[in-house]
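Exercise 7b. Backbone tokens:
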């Protein structure tokens, strides 16, 4: 049988005092209520002996804060988002916040449901990577004055605090590196093109080609829908082989891992047949038969900035209608797939 949770009334009964007195002491109101130091000490010591733990929900209702943050990510199976979640949790603990995780799978209905569930849990605020079409839910949060920060996303019709990377320049410099490796038929495999950050990666790719006097071939641009299905990536790779592509920029590491797997199954060699660069470095790229070059997002810094901004919002230290939009640079790690 589970051990019964100690309540304030249990402590009061043990000491022969009122529950109100115990509550005042445990909530730091001894001096305000003129409770003696001797009695306050007895209450605290008894609470410790009885393993009393405050009810966080009840405390939140009294103070207006639960010291809890809701984190809704797009796809926790993606190593990038898993890493982001870990750093957000590490940073949140520095501010004495707990983090409740959810995964939307890029599904707007699921995202909306998760928001309401976490609001019912009285979270103090949110860090979000919202799916396509979630503007209505974000505007609703603002109307309800619930603090939130968007990370890794930008929504044109929603003015809010955000933390992102320079996606255009990242796509541009990655493509320039592929060109430097003497590749002329450079493809890009993208996902969720309706998201502005993903479009920016492709726009950077296009500009790098144009600046290098290489025609932009729309047949070499593959925009896939979000899916966990390998066959969608396989179809794209097979078509790129038919189009004589000799290099690929993958705009997520999940696409990259699947794409490299498909290339090998089709008998293609890296970098002999295809030079490769992918967004979001992952351990799999370091230990691959041919180590993969990658764009490294500053995940730790992104997490710190998101928590910093959210903390200021929760404390009411922002002027209403003024937003911080942080854009960070990336690093590159060049390996054998594109030196």
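Sequence design result:
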């Amino acid at each position: 049988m589970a051990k019964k949770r100690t309540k304030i009334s249990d402590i009061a009964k043990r000491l022969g005092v009122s529950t109100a007195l115990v509550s005042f002491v445990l909530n730091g109101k001894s001096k305000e209520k003129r409770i003696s130091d001797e009695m306050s000490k007895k209450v605290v010591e008894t609470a410790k002996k009885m393993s009393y733990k405050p009810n966080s929900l009840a405390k939140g209702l009294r103070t207006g804060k639960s010291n809890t943050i809701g984190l809704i990510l797009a796809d926790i199976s993606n190593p990038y988002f898993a890493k982001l979640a870990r750093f957000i949790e590490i940073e949140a603990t520095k501010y004495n916040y707990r983090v409740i995780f959810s995964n939307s799978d890029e599904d707007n209905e699921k995202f909306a449901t998760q928001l309401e569930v976490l609001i019912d849990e009285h979270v103090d605020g949110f860090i979000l990577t919202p799916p396509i079409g979630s503007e209505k839910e974000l505007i609703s949060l603002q109307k309800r004055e619930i603090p939130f920060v968007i990370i890794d996303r930008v929504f044109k019709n929603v003015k809010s605090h955000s933390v992102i990377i320079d996606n255009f320049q990242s796509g541009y410099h990655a493509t320039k590196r592929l060109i430097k490796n003497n590749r002329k038929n450079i493809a890009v495999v993208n996902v969720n093109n309706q998201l502005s950050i993903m479009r920016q990666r492709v726009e950077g790719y296009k500009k790098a080609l144009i600046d290098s006097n290489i025609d932009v071939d729309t047949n070499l641009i593959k925009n896939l829908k979000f899916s966990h299905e390998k066959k969608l990536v396989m179809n794209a790779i097979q078509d790129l082989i038919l189009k004589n592509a000799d290099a690929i920029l993958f705009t997520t590491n999940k696409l990259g891992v699947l794409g490299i797997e498909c290339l090998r199954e089709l008998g293609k060699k890296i970098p002999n047949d295809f030079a490769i660069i992918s967004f979001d470095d992952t351990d799999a790229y370091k230990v691959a038969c041919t180590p993969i070059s990658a764009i490294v997002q500053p995940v730790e810094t992104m997490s710190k900035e998101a928590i910093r901004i959210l903390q200021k919002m929760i404390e009411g230290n922002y002027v209403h209608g003024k937003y911080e939009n942080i854009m960070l640079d990336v690093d590159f790690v060049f390996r054998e797939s594109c030196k």
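Instructor comment: The two ends are 62 Å apart (CA to CA). The chain has a mean pLDDT of 91.
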